[in-house]
Amino acid sequence: MTPPGTPGAFTAPAYGDRSLADVVPSVGRALGVALDGHPVGLELPPAPSYVVFLVDGMGAELLARYAHAAPYLSSLLVDGATGTAGVPSTTATSLTSLGTGLPPGTHGLVGFTARIPGTDRLLNHLWWDKGIDPLEWQPHPTALGRLAHAGVHVTSVNKRDFDGTGLTVASQRGATYVGADRVGERIAATVSASAHEPSLTYVYDSDLDWTGHKFGVASTQWLQQLAMVDAEAEQMRDALPSSTRLLVVADHGMVDSPRGSRVDVDETDGLRDGVALIGGEARFRHLYCSAGAVDDVAATWRSVLGDRATVLTREEAISTGWFGAVDPGVLPRLGDVVVACHGDTAVVSTRDFAYEDTLVGLHGSLTPAEMLIPILVG
């Protein structure tokens, strides 16, 4: 179906073909270890070892727009060197799709925040909650773990603070974790891990995303950080043996949302009516409704936002394929109504999410700037 208000500018997730969920299974095939149940979509060149370097926030459109600041990475952005994030296009969702090889509707981390079923509380998937067991919240074996079980040497090189967190356990369990906080540490750890054959080494850099949130993707600070990421990727490539493939990807892109493009639910008549809990994030909201209020909430939000957002009921959103296959246990984590922003619109709540409203760059929706990611083979 064509959901009401869906603009042609939205980019559908390419699950089963060239989405983040297809990257690790495709690397497995390139290493000679196929994972059952994964279709062949993304074809990668065979190699005895792979390094998957994920740059948080480096959308394909941004990389193309600012190619002058990233000459090495942009030189790899040839035709066909793109894929998509899942929905919503946000870090916790994307990292879990990468690590598990599953779409969001199956792995269950369906946004920056999502309702804990049966409660009036939200789970922040980045910071987690000690009362929520990540093995229960995300019970599926990860693709990284399945490759390790099949004999691939799988390593995750990431900041020390992320070791053992709920998100790491949900998305990366089964990989050997190596803490590395600085670029030099990351490169050294990557070179060491990738000396094993066959091997997959996953490396994560969050600094570009942080810079974009704070200063915006049109800022001098963001361009300088992109140049530093480009240098890091090139240095990593130079430090690795020629037989090792470097695969550079991102988890999402980003758009800057100016003050005039923001809708505050706490200052807009009607938007709180019938809504028991607001989750998600500013570019992709999950609305959890009071009993019997779903249709009225959807109608009100469509009327108020107009062409600034696509507003769908849960059933309509699922039928579009936005979340891929949805497990029954994941259903109540999705909003009764979901709101995907167009252009540079953001839906904020200065009461519930005050810090979010201070950010300049945002992501989560289905615009090409947010959804399209580079898949660069070096």
From TrEMBL:
Signal peptide: none annotated. GO terms for molecular function: hydrolase activity. InterPro entries: Alkaline_phosphatase_core_sf, Phosphodiest/P_Trfase. Gene3D superfamilies: Alkaline Phosphatase, subunit A. This is Type I phosphodiesterase / nucleotide pyrophosphatase. The lineage of its organism: Bacteria, Bacillati, Actinomycetota, Actinomycetes, Propionibacteriales.
